[in-house]
Amino acid sequence: MTGKYGDLLKKARKKDSEAENNNESTSSNTAKQEAVKPALQPAVNTESTTEIEIVKEKEVSLTIKVPVSWRQHWVAECKREGKTLKEVVTEMLTEKYGKP
């Protein structure tokens, strides 16, 4: 016997699988095109007009220890603004120290 959440998950998974089946033909073409792209490719930097193109680098983790309540507050505020915590922290560090 499944609970109410189990039933909801089954319905959501069923809808997702149906949507994937409908979009399979168009997404397979897109996936093939993306697979052909090189790992390092220039991207347009929209924040700074002086730097027109930058090269995407491999991303690494940056870990800090903070109280749980602070993190929960920051994540909630980011969601209200429609941003991620990563975007906000990256923006703040770039503002303070600039880019290499």
Number of strands: 2
Widest beta sheet: strand line-up: 1-2
List the secondary-structure elements in sequence, H or E. HEEHH
Mean of residue pLDDT values: 76
Secondary structure layout:
Blueprint: H1 4-36, E1 42-44, E2 53-55, H2 68-81, H3 85-97
Antiparallel strand pairs: 1-2
Task: Report on the architecture of this protein.
There is one protein chain. Helices cover 60% and strands 6% of the residues. It has 3 helices and 2 strands; from the N terminus they run H-E-E-H-H. Strands 1-2 form a two-stranded antiparallel sheet. A hairpin with an 8-residue loop joins strand 1 and strand 2. It is extended.
In short:
This protein is mainly α. It has 3 helices and 2 strands; from the N terminus they run H-E-E-H-H.
Key features of this structure:
mainly alpha, 100 residues, two-stranded antiparallel ribbon
